[in-house]
Design goal:
The chain is an all-alpha fold. The protein has helices at residues 2-89, 91-225, 234-237, 246-283, 295-304, 308-324, 338-369, 375-406, 420-453, 460-489, 491-496, 511-531, 541-554, 558-604, 609-626, 630-645, 649-768. One of its GO terms (cellular component) is early endosome.
């Protein structure tokens, strides 16, 4: 088991490793792309640096030339200042020189104009380069910030992965230790099993040798001393008594007892259903106490009144079947003769159902035609009529299969043994169909009862009768469900028990052979019982010694004991004579008392109350004089007291009648209340059962989700163990790349600072110029 679990884990790890390897390749491609982008950025930075250096060199050359030109301009201005006073003196001589200086001035102005334009162009280029440099610097800084945040995130992920990796390593180490312990224990068990197998092989060899010797001996005995083998022919073998299977018989009796209890419940439910249906016909749609009901309903009520004569025999037949299954019999289909009587009783009940079915359908049609019937009630009545037809059909189907099962005990050729299992399965299907139809009847009748209760003309009698019918239908549904589930649970046992019969044969051939076999079984049991002679009771040695001592000590007083016994016998005879005498005296006193009581009762009718008291005193005196024992005195005084009261008989009977009538009314109301409560509780139980089924379904779904979640957790743990190394490699590469990027960025910052300083110096120089 441990090796299989390890192989499963290794297979999962290999699958996850292949997945992570594919993911690692994708990450490598992303890193290569980032490296290519960083290389391109580095080349762009180099090009920008070269262009900046060129521009700086041009600026330096231009500044140098500007300085030269400025010096030259200063020199020319000095020469011009010196030449102006001279020009005044020799204007004439200086005209030619002025023309020359004018030409030189124009040349210098043009050259200066060109230099100014070139300086402006350079200033513009420098400004554009500075702006572009600032833009690139901002982009690089934002890129650096994003890379730093990504590095921090990667570092956090790495820390979390390392923690999980360490936890998983600890768990795996613990699992490894447990598996090692299990492997050691399994190795020990394997060694013990090997030793046991060796011992068993030795025992098997010994047993084989012993059994082979016994077989040869038994074969020689059979060949020498068995003149006739009756198991060879099935007709003779059917007469052999099979081995007594007490467990099988007890199981069959237990099953028959359970079936009897279920049939009794079903019988009571059917009786209540037919009886309450009869009461409903007398109430709805026409109340028989107010008006006469239709002739159809009268006939239907008359037939329903006979339901007990058809339903009760079902219980009796099942009871006889249960009583026929005892511990001493052999219970198979060939020996269950009482099943035929149960089948006949079921046939008579089905005839009763066929007889009342047309009247029931016509009664429902009459209810539909009445003015009180609504469309919804009419629909429910139609559904109930269809359900009643289905119920009768299901009972007929069930009776057909039970009659087939009863054939092997009466007509052996009526049903083949190969068809027993199919008939039993069909019985189970018919019982389940009966349960389904009863559920439909219960549903439709409850809907019908609710609709009728909402009618304005619904009386309390109708409501209570509907509740009673509904409770009986619910009881029928429960009984049918119990019988169907009971039969389906024991169906395999029924099919397996069909092979129970004579040894080395297919079974009993005919009911006559089965009956002969049972007679032989009884004779064999009686013979075995006669062989068991009871042992005589013996007295233990110590008790015998004690009794001997007592006898030796009591021999001396034997004569005295004999005299005491004789005296006690004489006393007993005297007491019996006295007892007879006093019994005769008591009878005489009783006769006198009755005569006196009769005489006093006759006189009380014609005398006053005072004379009544005087006569009672005389009667008491006579009775005290006649009685000589306490028992006779008590017997005399009690009738005097009873005669002296003289209660009013009619008023007492009225009181008792009123009391019992009130009690009956109270009990009927309590019974109706209990029935309504039972219906309510049944509805609540159905709702609770539905909730329970939904809760069980949700529980199953949650358990499946828990299994999937546990599988996902194990898979993620395996992924963590396999991806940690790849993440570590990638993070080391990323850290190296970030270090290189930081170095390049520091260099770029330094170059940018130098460029800024140089640009500031150039701008100051240009401003000064």
């Amino acid at each position: 088991m441990a090796s299989a679990e390890l192989q499963g884990k290794y297979q999962k790890l290999a699958q996850e490793y292949s997945k992570l390897r594919a993911q690692n390749q994708v990450l490598k491609k992303g890193v290569v792309d980032e490296q290519a982008n960083s290389a391109a950025l580095k080349e762009q930075l180099k090009m920008k640096d070269q262009s900046l250096r060129k521009l700086q060199q041009e600026m330096d050359s231009l500044t140098f030339r500007n300085l030269q030109l400025a010096k030259r301009v200063e020199l020319l201005q000095d020469e011009l200042a010196l030449s102006e006073p001279r020009g005044k003196k020799n204007k004439k001589s200086g005209e030619s020189s002025s023309q020359l200086s004018q030409e030189q001035k124009t040349v210098f102005d043009e050259d200066l104009q060109k230099k100014i334009e070139e300086n402006e162009r350079l200033h513009i280029q420098f400004f554009e380069a500075d702006e572009q440099h600032k833009h690139v610097e901002a982009e690089l800084r934002s890129r650096l910030a994003t890379l730093e945040t990504e590095a921090a995130q990667h570092q956090a992920v790495v820390d979390g992965l390392t923690r999980k990796y360490m936890e998983t390593i600890e768990k795996l180490q613990n699992d490894k230790a447990k598996l090692e312990v299990k492997s050691q224990t399994l190795e020990k068990e394997a060694k013990e099993c090997r030793l046991r197998t060796e011992e068993c092989q030795l025992q098997l060899k010994n047993l084989h040798e012993d059994l082979s010797g016994r077989l040869e001996e038994s074969l020689s005995i059979i060949n020498e001393k068995v003149p006739f083998n009756d198991t060879k022919y099935s007709q003779y073998n059917a007469l052999n008594v099979p081995l007594h299977n007490r467990r099988h018989q007890l199981k069959m009796r237990d099953i028959a007892g359970q079936a009897l209890a279920f049939v009794q419940d079903l019988v009571t439910a059917l009786l209540n259903f037919h009886t309450y249906t009869e009461q409903r016909i007398q109430i709805f749609p026409v109340d028989s106490a107010i008006d006469t009901i239709s002739p159809l309903n009268q006939k239907f009520s008359q037939y329903l009144h006979e339901n007990a004569s058809y339903v009760r025999p079902l219980e009796e037949g099942m009871l006889h079947l249960f009583e026929s299954i005892t511990e001493d019999t052999v219970t198979v289909l060939e020996t269950t003769v009482k099943l035929k009587t149960f089948s006949e009783h079921l046939t008579s009940y089905i005839c009763f159902l066929r007889k009342i079915l047309p009247y029931q359908l016509k009664s429902l049609e009459e209810e539909c035609e009445s003015s009180l019937c609504t469309s919804a009630l009419r629909a429910r009545n139609l559904e109930l009529s269809q359900d009643m037809k289905k119920m009768t059909a299901v009972f007929e189907k069930l009776q057909t299969y039970i009659a087939l099962l009863a054939l092997p005990s009466t007509e052996p050729d009526g049903l083949l043994r190969a068809n027993y299992s199919s008939v039993l399965t069909n019985v189970g299907a018919a019982l389940h169909g009966f349960h389904d139809i009863m559920k439909d009847i219960s549903k439709h009748y409850s809907q019908k009862a609710t609709i009728e209760h909402e009618l304005p003309t619904a009386t309390q009698k109708l409501i209570t009768t509907n509740d009673c019918i509904l409770s009986s239908v619910v009881a029928l549904t429960n009984g049918a469900g119990k019988i169907a589930s009971f039969f389906s649970n024991n169906l395999d046992y029924f099919i397996a028990s069909l092979s129970y019969g004579p040894k080395a044969a297919s079974g009993f051939i005919s009911p006559l052979s089965a009956e002969c076999m049972l007679q032989y079984k009884k004779k064999a049991a009686a013979y075995m019982k006669s062989l068991r002679k009871p042992l005589l009771e013996s007295v233990p040695y110590e008790e015998a010694l004690a009794n001997r001592r007592i006898l030796l000590s009591s021999t001396e007083s034997r004569e005295g004991l004999a005299q005491q016994v004789q005296q006690s016998l004489e006393k007993i005879s005297k007491l019996e004579q006295e007892k007879e005498h006093w019994m005769l005296e008591a009878q005489l006193a009783k006769i006198k008392l009755e005569k006196e009581n009769q005489r006093i009762a006759d006189k009380l009718k014609n005398t006053s109350s005072g004379q009544l008291v005087r006569l009672a005193q005389e009667n008491a005196a006579v009775s005290n004089a006649a009685g000589q024992d306490e028992a006779t005195a008590k017997a005399v005084s009690e009738p005097i007291q009873s005669t002296s009261l003289v209660p009013d008989v009619e008023s007492r009977e009225d009181l008792i009648k009123n009391h019992y009538m009130a009690r009956i009314v109270e009990l009927t109301s309590q019974l109706q209340l209990a029935d309504s409560k039972s219906v309510h509780f049944y509805a609540e139980c159905r709702a609770l059962s539905k909730r329970l089924a939904l809760a069980e379904k949700s529980k199953e779904a949650l358990t499946e989700e828990m299994k999937l979640a546990s599988q996902n957790i194990s898979r993620l743990q395996d992924e963590l163990t396999t991806t940690k190394r790849s993440y570590e490699d990638q993070l080391s590469m990323m850290s190296d790349h970030l270090c290189s990027m930081n170095e390049t960025l520091s260099k770029q910052r330094e170059e940018i600072d130098t460029l800024k300083m140089s640009s500031k110096g150039n701008s100051k120089k240009n401003k000064s110029r």
